[in-house]
Amino acid sequence: MAPIPRKNRKAVLFIAMxxxxxxxxxxxxxxxxxxxxxxxxxxxxxxxPSAALWMISAIGFLSLLAHAAPVHGAKxxxxxxxxxxxxxxxxxxxxxxxxxxxxPFLTRPVSGERVRFIFNEKELGTTLTGGNGFAMLSxxxxxxxxxxxxxxxxxxxYRALPTEFLIGSWKAGDPLFIVTLSSLxxxxxxxxxxxxxxxxxxxxxxxxxxxxxxxxxxxxxIYTTQNSPLSYEKQxxxxxxxxxxxxxxxxxxxEKNGLSKQIKGWKDDGWKHLQWLVTHSQEEAQQSERAxxxxxxxxxxxxxxxxxQNTPLQYLRASDWKEIGEIIKKK
Length: 331
Description:
By secondary structure, the chain is an alpha/beta fold. Helices cover 33% and strands 26% of the residues. It has 3 domains: 6-68, no CATH class; 73-168, Immunoglobulin-like; 176-186 and 202-330, 3-Layer(aba) Sandwich (Rossmann fold), CATH 3.40.50.
């Protein structure tokens, strides 16, 4: 990342102070301790001081509201969840986050609320959300199979819909088949979309769901997602809408080599046979191969125009899901 220019550092510092300690920052602003710095900064950057102060005041006001507004006054809250996998007979660490809306379009973590974890209509345990809104519960293990864990908010002033997430509890030596969600979705032509319209639901690649329903009988299937324009809940709904087999949807952290780090984490957890990964990303295919997993790079017609098919052969390539099926059968 390029360093912040010296002339912009004061502005960045001021905005950071607003969001971290709004009360103290605004008090200093009113006392005039940093007014001169703001004025000189705006002049150097060719902004009219009054316009800049209006902008800063608006940011400060929203930040102050977000920090000062009592979140417990919100009427609704929601759980933020993610599926997971864990070898059988290994401890499982369940983790969810509770968020509430303090002001429109701005959510904040909700702390100090009891969250109940339920499995097969029996309570696994109850724990409180921390300052970051996370509630965590460790349990010895779950029975083998694809298990559903439910969470609810008992006896709270909030109204949060009960939510569930999947835990893939399988033997550590069982083979796993990993599919990135982007490789299942067909790309849409940007020229056909209006900039003012909401993103439409992307169609699924032909034959993908049918093929994965067969794979699900030989491997344990895992979906991964990273940087999707759809929310996590909508991604789960999308898989259901297009009749994809039920399987954990794992969120990969948005960072460099995020997939490689996730694969390393799985191996550290004891997974021994991460056999295949199908992706639409050349970078992810390379990360997978470096981590010791056979990968198949799904190359479409638009990728061929960029020369993606001419890169050094480090992994297998396919032009559609039928070809992917043929590759798996041969191997």
